[in-house]
Amino acid sequence: MKILVPVKRVLDYNVKPRVKADGTGVDLANVKMSMNPFDEIAVEEAIRLREKGAATEVIVVSIGEAKAQETLRTALAMGADRAILIVSEEKVEPLGVAKLLAKVAAEEAPGLIILGKQAIDDDNNQTGQMLAGLLGWGQGTFASAVVVEGDTVTVTREVDGGAETERFTMPAIVTTDLRLNEPRYASLPNIMKAKSKPLAQKAPADYGVDVAPRLTTLKVVEPPKRTAGIKVADVDELVGKLKAMGVAK
Amino acid sequence: MKALVWVEHDGAAVKDATLAAVTAAAKLGDVHLLVAGQGVGAVSGQAAKIMGVAKVHVADDAAYAHALAENVAPLVAGLMDHHDAFVAPATTNGKNIAPRVAALLDVMQISDILSVESADTFTRPIYAGNAIATVQTRDTKLVLTVRGTAFDKAAMEGGAGIIEAVASMGDKGVSTFVSAEIAKSERPELTSAKVIVSGGRALQNSENFHTIIEPLADKLGAGVGASRAAVDAGYVPNDYQVGQTGKIVAPEVYIAIGISGAIQHLAGMKDSKTIIAINKDEDAPIFQVADIGLVGDLFKIVPELTGKL
Ligand SMILES: Cc1cc2nc3c(=O)[nH]c(=O)nc-3n(C[C@H](O)[C@H](O)[C@H](O)COP(=O)(O)OP(=O)(O)OC[C@H]3O[C@@H](n4cnc5c(N)ncnc54)[C@H](O)[C@@H]3O)c2cc1C
Ligand SMILES: Nc1ncnc2c1ncn2[C@@H]1O[C@H](COP(=O)(O)O)[C@@H](O)[C@H]1O
To answer: Which bound ligand lies closest to the C-alpha atom of A39?
Structure first.
């Protein structure tokens, strides 16, 4: 069984995003970019399934600028077997990404596609569910545990009230939540080895998919700023404040 | 415009998150609801009374008992022949179902909206709420999820919606519900609590969380939240997590105890009316957003505070 893992290159989660003065977006010039943290978890899960013998090959895919190559190399260094880069200098929306991934899925026939639950730049949380809808497959979203047995995958999902377990016939989609696993670091030898692993370059047109955006961003602004308030000296003063607010009697 | 709102419920009652979605939908036009589930007579009756609701479509079938997206999405897509917008609360169920509906309709979803600017333009948070984008869609049908803290809740009384049964589209046969571990708590739900007491990594273990955070919450009638670090370390279950990837809350008062204030945590609580922070590090980023700060050791401060309330 093959596992397909879509990975996105995003602003590193440790970097504080800065809104551009002209209101067109967030400044991505000269800032650290990394693999979306949820996608690292997805790559890790796929590699573990291969290591356990549940999968034979892990293929990573990214849609984005040519620089997304670096992100794919990181995934290859973690242990993925090969990579596909679909180059688009224009931003592709989740619906377009899902359509491209559906074509890749038709070519590669994976048993599982493991995505992140959300990309931390646009915080959309859509692509996996859209892809599942396009393919008519089951979707185990927000996974905190994944068990493959025969032709089914059982997924424990993090939901508002706690946890829920669902079983899906494969092929199926899984999207990762934070506690699914702890991704490994790539070792130096593996980083070297990754350089010679296959990385195919494609364009959206190769798949015959129209990725023209449906949404126009009219402007991007900073949220209303909170300013630091006061510091109280001790618990008595805090109790006084709570009483004044009517929170405590 | 006719908007179809997906009703979040637990089989017995309509959940609060639905009411904010109704308010958002009402800004677009006529509000219709979809109650999908098994044995949802009571929920449908309740839904019909929500202020401003014109019609309640009810799909009562075992296929919808656990809100499996594989079964619910085709049902919604069918109803969208007669509606212009599908609106779901940005709950885990809403986030699971709505994008699948969008794909079936070939439209781009607009996630987590904060406001309705016009019939095709909305604002939404990006980058963990560090930026707010205004986006306009070209699609002829809308699929939206609604951030609960950004809209008032529609009244649970005063409506007189017509209830109409919808034929089931059956089980698609790709997914099965196995089990749920839903935490039962006497405390208010995080997303509707007026006061929240949250604990972070500084609590050190689950016992401290119980003996230090919970008594304070009990005194204040508060909901209990946590940082991701506290959840990851196993002090409390995942449904406590507040933040970019957990719950988004905006209570009257949010008390952050032993939480540093990482941007991913702030993303979930910085719209709270009053933020109170207790932290031993006076330079902790949480103090940059806190209205009231107290610097010191939580193990000393919190029991004293609880005692004096
Ligand atoms: C993709 C991604 C998503 C994330 N999503 C979330 C999310 O949704 N929610 C979330 O919370 N985090 C999230 N995080 C994690 C986030 O980046 C931080 O790691 C986390 O919020 C830190 O939790 P903390 O403040 O409890 O721990 P720490 O950062 O370790 O802070 C502990 C604080 O306690 C203080 N302290 C220690 N001892 C005491 C004492 N005795 N008395 C008083 N104060 C004390 C310290 O001064 C410190 O400020 C996410 C991270 C990533 C990468
Ligand atoms: N441009 C992209 N290239 C590859 N994978 C992507 C891309 N955009 C989104 N994804 C995948 O879809 C997941 C959810 O993204 P989103 O729906 O944008 O929040 C991510 O965690 C990735 O696994």
So the answer is: 2
Residue B31 burial (C-beta neighbours within 10 Å; 0-12, 13-18, 19+)? buried
| Tens-place pLDDT, residues A93-136 | 999 999 999 999 999 999 999 999 999 999 999 999 999 999 99
- Which tens digit of pLDDT belongs to each residue from A178-197? 999 999 999 999 999 999 99
% of residues, chain B, pLDDT over 70: 100
Question: Best interface-test mutation with B: which of A13, A135, A209, A235 has the largest number of B CBs within 10 A?
Answer: A235
The string of DSSP letters for A81-129 reads -EEEEEE-SS---HHHHHHHHHHHHHHH--SEEEEES--TTT----HHH
In the chain, the amino acid numbered B72 is V
ipTM of the complex as predicted: 0.96
Number of residues assigned to chain A: 249
**Residue A168 CB less than 6 A away from ligand 2:** no
- DSSP annotation of B18 reads H
* pLDDT value of residue A237: 96
Closest by CA to A179, choosing from A200, A204, A162, A202, is A162
In angstroms, the CA A181 to CA A184 distance is 9
Read out DSSP for B41-56? HHHHHHHHTSTTEEEE
Give CA–CA dist A192/A195, Å, rounded. 6
Please give, rounded to a whole number of angstroms, the shortest distance from the CA of A106 to a CA of chain B: 17
Structure tokens at A190: 């593996």
pLDDT of residue A193: 96
Torsion, CA B113, CA B117, CA B118, CA B120, rounded to 10 = -40
Give the pLDDT of residue A249: 76
DSSP secondary structure, A21-83, as one string: TTSSSB--TT--EEE-HHHHHHHHHHHHHHHTTS-SEEEEEEEE-TTHHHHHHHHHHHT--EE
The token duo for B27 is 């800004």
- pLDDT at A88 exceeding the cut of 80: yes
- The pLDDT of B125-139, averaged and rounded, is 97
**Do A167 and A146 meet the contact criterion of CB atoms below 8 Å apart?**
no
Chain B residues inside the 8 Å CB shell of A94: 99, 108-109
The angle that helices B298-308 and A235-244 make with each other, rounded to 10 degrees, is: 50
Do the Cβ atoms of B169 and B82 come closer than 8 Å?
A: no
Q: Find all residues with CB under 8 Å of A175, minimum gap 6, and list them.
A: A38, A42, A114, A115, A116, A117, A128, A129, A139, A140, A141, A142, A143
Instruction: Specify the range with the lowest mean pLDDT, choosing from A76-80, B237-241, B294-298.
Output: B237-241
Q: How far is CA A218 from the centre of its chain?
A: 25
* Any ligand 2 atom below 6 A from CB of A126: yes
Distance B270 CA to ligand 1 centre (A): 15
The rounded distance, in Å, linking the Cα atoms of B114 and B137 is 15
DSSP B213: I
**Cβ-based contacts of B122 with chain A (< 8 Å):** none
